[in-house]
Specification:
The structure is a single chain. The chain is α/β, with parallel strands linked by helices. It is about 40% helix and about 25% strand. The chain has one domain: P-loop containing nucleotide triphosphate hydrolases (Rossmann fold, 3-Layer(aba) Sandwich). A hairpin with a 2-residue loop joins strand 9 and strand 10. Bound molecules: adenosine-5'-diphosphate and magnesium ion. The site of adenosine-5'-diphosphate has 12 residues, from strand 1, strand 2 and helix 1.
Length: about 250
């Protein structure tokens, strides 16, 4: 479970303060897939980095699996897998297997555990044929699979993906979508940010919509479709932005 409680994050940019996240409160239950929607600059990355213990909220608090992100970051780091848009964190000169072995070492997995886990992930992601090839020569889709496998090497219960499909072609985006379905079947809790409405409507149980740092909606997709009288998430999103959060109750 992820409990975000009245989180505000301010940055000081030279002499100007930027409030990237404003009083955001919502809870994600175990096993849920949540889409974090918002335009560029809405505060999605800041919120995800805060959940991942990489940023300290200026105000408010976040608990992940019962642990506070500021007081107990190490306990949380073991439970979560994070992938931030664009950064695969992979070493081109290493093979896919060597990359995964390297990250397994960072998480303190034994040699045996590492081998079992890598075989499992290679099978799950259909990467068996290229595990022993250098990542430097991989296509974007292949790289993305290895990057996601790296995120999952320690079998985390909670996974955060920041704009996982931005800049990917259709084939690679589909790879990501299939993986989320699989992870969902395995009972993982997932938050991913996106500005692709179709992706969110296909994959998510619920959505959190952000606009200029504020949460303008959080709830199940089905409830949202019902209350808005439409299944067009793009349209709903735009109309929520126009209305802002003054109509956001609960
Ligand atoms: N390290 C930083 N220093 C100053 N401002 C930042 C920093 N990180 C993010 N911001 C600002 O915070 C706001 C939200 O950014 P971000 O969380 O990256 O939004 P999103 O991921 O939704 O595009 C933006 O105005 C951005 O410029
Ligand atoms: Mg971002």
């Amino acid at each position: 479970m992820i409990e975000i409680n009245q989180v505000t994050k301010k940055f000081q940019d030279k002499k100007v303060y930027v409030t990237a996240v404003k009083h955001v409160t919502f809870t994600v239950n175990a096993g849920q897939v949540v889409g974090l929607l918002g335009e560029n600059g809405a505060g999605k990355t800041t919120l995800l980095r805060s959940i991942a213990t990489l940023l300290t909220p200026t105000d408010g608090s976040i608990k992940v699996g019962g642990f506070d992100t500021v007081k107990n970051p190490d306990a949380i780091k073991r439970k979560i897998g994070v992938l931030f848009g664009g950064e695969t964190g992979l070493y081109d000169r290493l093979t896919a297997r060597e990359n995964l072995e390297y990250f397994a070492t960072l998480y303190g997995l034994s040699k045996h555990e590492t081998k079992v886990r890598i075989d499992e992930l290679a099978k799950m992601f259909g990467m068996k044929d290229y595990m022993n090839r250098k990542v430097g020569g991989f296509s974007k889709g292949m790289r993305q699979k290895v990057a996601i496998a790296r995120t999952l090497i320690h079998n985390p219960d909670i996974i955060l993906f920041d704009e996982p499909t931005t800049g990917l072609d259709i084939t690679s985006s589909n790879v990501f979508r299939q993986l989320v379905h699989q992870l969902k079947r395995d009972g993982k809790t997932i938050i991913f940010s996106s500005h692709i409405m179709e992706e969110v409507s296909l994959l998510c149980d619920s959505v959190a919509m952000m606009h200029k740092g504020e949460l303008v909606h959080h709830g199940s997709l089905e409830d949202l479709y019902k209350s808005e009288g439409s299944r067009d998430l793009n349209y709903i999103f735009m109309s929520k932005l126009v209305r802002g959060n003054e109509h956001y109750a609960s």
